[in-house]
Amino acid sequence: MTIIITGTSAGIGFTLAEYLGKKGHTVFGLSRKNVESNYFKTIPTDITDHAQVQNAIAEVLKTESRIDILINNAGMGMVGPVEDSSQAEILQLFNLNLVGTVQMMTAVLPIMRAQKMGRIINVSSIGSEMGLPFRGFYSASKAAVDKVTEAIRYEVSPWNIQVCALHLGDIKTKIAENRVKTKISEPYQKIFDKVYGLMNAHVDHGNEPLEVAEYIEKLLEKRQWKAHFYYAKLGQRIGVPLKWMLPQNFYENLMRRYNQLD
User: Which residue spans traverse the membrane (predicted)?
Assistant: First the structure.
């Protein structure tokens, strides 16, 4: 299969590209940095730039006659109080997490329509299902990806194109080094420091990127996709159905305890 993966300079994207390349697939990695690998080809691309995205797809089609899979993995985190977040920071986050994802889908869909098949995985987050303290805009950006995913599933189904959102929990990557961190005003400083330390501890004890790659391989083997798939440790994954089942105030109290806000 011909597979395009975004955000392959490090972390999940790099591990996934190498893993699928080793399995014999033709893999193209789109990232702003040029990455050396024996298992996939990097096409330096800023996915927020429409022209660069179009050029990247044209580059793929120079050697390949089809595009079977798009995995929208590129994204960024953002931490800080809602009140302290600037317009520029919010727009930067949504431009990559939402607009970049949409631009990639719209670039490959004409090819997938012509071949009457294709699959797209939009990497989302368990955090898209709930407003996480001090990660409100990150949760919002991924929730937006979820709703676009749900909508586009209907729109492209006549051409045998399947789209899903893959909600990940904490993964052991260097995400903490690459997050946008807003200013933290004095009223929030003490509680933010506590939550931020806990947040990073959860990442340190998260799933390995290779585990995610193995899960995605199994996902690609499924004949029919649901709109949403979840991969996380039980303690995080169970938070999703609990939100659906429990009274809102009770659920919020559980979340406060989990985030040590009490």
Answer: none
Cβ contacts of 89 within 8 Å, gap of 6 or more: 78, 80, 137, 180, 182
DSSP letters for 219-256: HHH-SS--SEEEES-HHHHTHHHHHHHS-HHHHHHHHH
Phi, psi of 71 (to 5 degrees): -115, 105
Rounded-to-integer distance, Cα 106 and Cα 30, Å: 15
Neighbours of 50 (CB within 10 A): 13
Per residue in 225-255, pLDDT (tens digit) is 999 999 998 888 898 999 999 999 999 999 9
DSSP H or E run through 11: helix 11-22
Please give the positions annotated as active site.
9, 124, 138, 142
What is the helix (H) or strand (E) element at residue 106, kind and residue range?
helix 101-115
Please check whether residue 64 is in contact with residue 3, taking contact to mean a CB–CB distance below 8 angstroms.
no
Q: How far apart are CA 186 and CA 192, in angstroms?
A: 10
pLDDT for position 62:
96
Give the three-class secondary structure for 43: strand
| Digit-coded pLDDT (tens) for 135-188 | 999 999 999 999 999 999 999 999 999 999 999 998 887 766 678 899 999 999
Structure token digits, residue 78: 């953002």
Q: Taking the model in full, what pTM does it have?
A: 0.94
Q: For each of the domains in the chain, give its residue range(s) and CATH number, in order of start.
A: 2-258 (3.40.50.720)
- pLDDT of 176 reads 66
Structure tokens at 81: 């109080």
